[in-house]
Amino acid sequence: MAKEDLGIVMPSSQDAIGEHSVGGTLAGLLALTSDAVLVFDGAGRILLANDEAERLFDKGKSGLVGSDVRVLFPPAVGVAAKTPFDPLYLPFSLDGHSASITCAATDGRSYEVVVRCDRISAPGETYLLVASTAAAAAAEREHDRLVDELSRANHRLSGTLKIVLDTIDSENVETLFGRVLGEISETLEATGTLLYLADRDGYRLWGASEGLRELRTPRFMSYSSSVGKWVSQAGSTLMLRVMEPTTDELRRGHLISRRILDEGTRQSRRVPSSLLPPFSSMLVAPVWFGDHMIAIIDVGWDKAHQLRRDDAKLLDAVGHYLSVQLAGALTTLRQQRISELERASSQLHLILLEVMSHSGGDISDEVQEHVLSVVSDALKAQVLSVNENPYQHETVVVTLPDQGERALPMSVDDLEATQAGGAPIVRVDQTDRLGVWLKEMGEPSQGALVDFGLFGGHRRCLLVLRSLDAEPLDDVELQFLRGLVEDVRDVGHGAELRAHDRYISQALQTGMRNELQQVDGLSAQGVYSSATKAAFVGGDFYDLIRLPNNRGCVIMGDVSGKGVEAASVSAAVKTALGAYSWEGLRPARMVRLLNEFLLGFSRLETFATLFVAIIDLSSGKLTYCSAGHPPAIMLRAKTGDLVMLDVQSGVVGAFKDMDYRNGQFQVEPGDILLLYTDGTTEARAADGSFFGEEGLHDAVMEELPHGFKGLLDRLLTHLDEFTGRNLDDDVAMVAVRFDSVGDTGSTKLS
After folding, report:
1. DSSP-derived secondary structure letter, 253
2. Would you say the pTM of this structure is higher than 0.70?
């Protein structure tokens, strides 16, 4: 039989295998294979058969070569059909695909064989058939299945170990919400993974694997929602499949809900479409910490996928391992959220303080827009301004998106009447009257109404709204809004008080100017510079009082605090000291009486520092009491030295039974007494350095040669240059020159 008749095509080059060895090579190949091999021609005549074919088809000594191939297969097993052979009528395809065929042995028993047959490239019409028993094919399939299962198990194990190794001692929350979710998806060969963390009202989305971040995914599931409640009741991973919509559902168009099948229990339930992730099949695993379900892990496939119980158990194990890390993450995230809202609160406070300090208690449109923007960014919500019409007594939403100004169906008072205690924060959801109205308007219908009360005669409110598929405002966010209400009310009330205080301050200013009386034998000058341009009266004060018997009293004080309280205490202190000085009391006694007076005078914790001196021009004796005040400076005319009057006592108005002492100094003609408040030495440069006593001494020594006249103005210029005209505290200075002292009748100095 020629090799061409067998369909053997010789290579164009026989260097590698010679023509005479092809037959041997083919014979060896047929002997080695465990499959039965037949070659037949276009007439159905078997041209070649190996030993395995002889055994499989049990033809014994007669052999298969030369037989009609149709005797081996139905419908007439063992009998060749009498019709002309047509390969198209064979019970198997001729394109290489497998087919299961029933054959019969010589003893009449039937058995299954798997046949693959294809036409080969050779002269004439030649076909190659390979057959094996069904048991062998089944064993091969089982082998392939076991190899596939082993490969899958190894992949699951390595993925789980990677998750464990990546999260050991991890303090980075992003690790849990980023890389680990991707590793879960990769391990289970899923489309993606979602992580929901438990909050006050339900489960909010906190993480998604890379492929899901751009897809529409529900951001919140309430505790009563189907999936959340379902997995909580089950206690372990659910295997869920989204069922195909029915013809009626497709005919209706928009699918409001979908039927979900639990492949473990074969039960199904309907779930709102808005609460379903973009999956067709999914494993939904609870994460338990003690008796509390703190998270849900949702692993899904975007196409129908065969869900395996082993994968569900693996996800349970991963959830159990991650529970401790997730519990810590919940605490961390909550603290991060609190910090974010605290920063937003501080920002709002600065906005209100800056603008409302000049607004007289009203909130300008500029402030309102800024507040709306900050609140919206902080809460990731839509924020609308609500005003109440004072004439028609109806509530109006100033700007409703796409709607313009629209009247709400109820007043603010009606809304607050539904809340315990008339709270300034009124919850809004889709079931109440306002929520239903907002939903009808096509607007987000859950959130809160925030009432700030009356400002400038107008009711001010905000609507903070989120869509229904977003999470409700949680307790931290509601506390942020309550703090905002308190802040706005406090600042607004403070602005009203400041406006009222200005009127009082103006009255006090009229009756309490810092004056230096004319005292024979003395030349005096004083200067006052306020750190606040808008201030009418501060806590710094000074006075020079002419007394009988060639005496005088010089006073300088600094009352703690600002505004009306400090101004009123300053006025009282000046009045009291003036009265004491006319009674002829020594300075320490004056201050002691003043301490008792102040402790009963002020309802606030107000105290004062004082320097009080009685000057006897006849003797040149200066008796003083320095009560917590910066030490006075005496400029010696004869020597040019600076001498500190350093006998010190405690402040006034802070404690009972405070000990106050007198100090004495002998003055001479031409000496200059310099008094100042602590705003002078504590003035700061731009780099934070203090002017200090040394800076003051240097400035005095520099300016003293230029004469007494204008001395304080020149010293104040030094301060302005040092601070860049930016004082932190009020500054007051007094300079007194002793022109005529003792019985010498010294000539008054120019």
Report:
1. -
2. no
